[in-house]
Amino acid sequence: MKKSRGRTGRKRRRKHLKSFMHGVNCSHKLEYIKLKKWLKERGFEDSNLRPAEFWETGRGLMTTKALQTGDLIISLPEKCLLTTGTVLSSCLGGHIVKWKPPVSPLLALCTFLIAEKHAGEKSPWKPYLDVLPKTYTCPACLEPDVINLLPKPLKKKAQEQKMMIQELFRSSKAFFSSLQPLFAENTGTIFNYSALEWAWCTINTRTIYMKHPHRECFSLEPDVYALAPYLDLLNHSPNVQVKAEFNEQTRNYEIWTNTQCKKYQEVFICYGPHDNQRLLLEYGFVAMDNPHSSVYVSPDTLLKYFSPLDKQRKAKVSILKDHDYLENLTFGWEGPSWRLLTALKVLSLGADEFACWRRILLGDVTSARNEQQALGTAAKICQFLIEETQHVLLQISQLKRDKENLKTHLALVEMLRSEDLRILQKSAEILCNLNLGT
């Protein structure tokens, strides 16, 4: 008898594991029941999507029926969307219209989110606000210790992102104060920095693109944001294709899939052909095995492999700058990019070949020596980046032991750096074969 009980136990375990691989249905959770009820009141027809927790992506949506190419995944009525129109028809509207200089559409949405969150039970948007993340993992929210571990180009962008939110907060203080008549509490405590950071990240990571006509009460920045409850639970995959747009006839925001999806699997959409640095910067996550991923070579790293004694060095750098060949130089799964090799060929030109720089930019070969030197330098840069990445991964594993509170943020940077390492090792292999070939 014991034996058969063990087998059923194993069977049950296997079943549990399988369901976890597929995703654990969360429809029964009160927050989702309330959200679905709220959406239904606004005209949303129940689709085949269910909120679920997935092993690799966390929270997402699973399908209860197999999806074929050309199927409609979701159709969300205009009434469910949160836009600047929503903000203007709220009690904030009158204050926004009167305020000079005009606020940006982005600030209007941030202000609305903070005010509604503060209203708590009284907010008509509470069922949506309750399912929004409490915290975010965009670089703007990371500790300086973690930001320091990011690759150089991303670290610079992360610091810029942080400064941008700080500047938005500084420049919006007077506007926030003007809203005092609407609140019993001091606006300074409601519209504080962490509230703005949370609202900014909510909009930056979750809005869908939807063009709205310009209104006089807003600044000239494009008004292209819409928050889409429920729809924004769909996670990104670089390997799927979808068509997403607002349908003027039905007045619904619709997403159609061009990729098949099996029953009970997670339904993905694609946010665009972004590499992992862009995904982390804009959305706060990293996609493993991302075909669009690349490792960037900073101008400083590039130039340290070329002698400062080269009389034409200054002219070469100037040519690269003028033709935009000092930025976006990368290693990818296919090896060094054409742009990186082109920049290396220009910098490798001998004194007697310098006049041929235009031909290189057009993709011509000047000499076997030039080709050889460019490939050799690419291999050295690649090796340097491999060692640098390995060193950072070591730092991360030490920090994970010492700083319990930073564990989730460190794990994210670790994922990014591990993927970088795999790309660089693949590139080193390709360069080794190319160098042997030449």
Automatic annotation (TrEMBL):
Q: Which UniProt keywords apply?
A: Cytoplasm, Inflammatory response, Methyltransferase, Nucleus, S-adenosyl-L-methionine, Transferase
Cited InterPro entries:
Rubisco_LSMT_subst-bd, Rubisco_LSMT_subst-bd_sf, SET_dom, SET_dom_sf, SET_MeTrfase, SETD3_SETD6_MTase, SETD4_SET
> What SUPFAM superfamilies does this protein's entry cite?
SET domain
Presence of the UniProt keyword Acyltransferase in the record: no
Q: Which GO terms describe its cellular component?
A: cytosol; nucleus
* Leading EC class: transferase
Keyword RNA-binding attached: no
Task: Tell me the subunit arrangement.
Answer: Forms a ternary complex with TBK1 and ZNF268; the interaction with TBK1 is ZNF268-dependent and leads to TBK1 monomethylation.
- Name of the protein described by the UniProt record: SET domain-containing protein 4
Q: Which gene encodes it?
A: Setd4
